[in-house]
C-alpha cells in the first residue's frame, strides 16, 4: 500500500521479486478496474520493449508499470508517455546522473557533444479505450538502476555506472511523485520535456510507417510530435524510431 511505501503521490505499490512483465500484470489490474497502482519488480523474466524489441531486466533495476485512468482523449495520450520520461529523467538527475531525453521517451546519458548517448531507461506505454476517450493507460518504465552496464545490451548504461547505486525505494518515490505532478497538469509536460531534451538541435533520422524523415530536430509540438526541418521544409512526426546522426 501507498502508506507503507511512504508516498505522497496517490499510488499503491504492488511489489514482486520476480515477475514475467510488470506491464502484463498492470494490464491485468487495469482490466479489473484498478487505478493508480504501480507494479514494481526487482527482476523480470519476460519484459517487453518498444517496437517488439527485447528488454533486459536483471535483478537490481527499477522495473515499474503504472496503471492510470485519465480523463483525456487518445490524442493527448502521448503526453502521458512524455510525462513518464520527464519524471524518470528527473529522478535519475536527483540520483546524480546527467539524464536527458531522446525523442520521444528514451532516457539517455550524453557521450561527448555530438548527440551520442547511452541508454539509461526506456518506456513502453500500453493503453485501451474508445476513439474519444482513454479507458486506462499503462506507462511501463525500465530503469537500469543498480545493475552493471556490462550485463546489459550494447549502448546501455546504468545509474550504478554513472553515479553509483541508488536507494531504489527513494528513486521510485521520486519518480511516482514527479509523474503524478505532470499527469495532473499536462500543460507542464512539454516545457519540462524541452528542458531535458537531447534530441532538439540534432540531425536525426526518424523511421515511421510512412517512410523515413531526415533533418534537424527543431522542436516538439503541444502534443509531443517532433518537428523536423528537412531539405524540403518542415515535417511533423508523431511516432517513430529516432536516431541521432552525426552533424554534417
Ligand atoms: C524501450 O524499448 O525502450 C522500452 C522498454 C520498457 C521496459 C519496461 S520495464 C517495466 C515494463 N515492463 C515491461 O515488460 N516493459 C516495461
TrEMBL record:
From-to range in the entire protein, with total length: 65 to 312 of 312
EC number, as in UniProt: 6.3.4.15
Keyword set, alphabetical order: ATP-binding, Ligase, Nucleotide-binding
GO molecular function per UniProt: biotin--[biotin carboxyl-carrier protein] ligase activity
Top EC group: ligase
Listed name of the protein: Biotin--[acetyl-CoA-carboxylase] ligase
BPL/LPL catalytic domain segment(s): 1-187
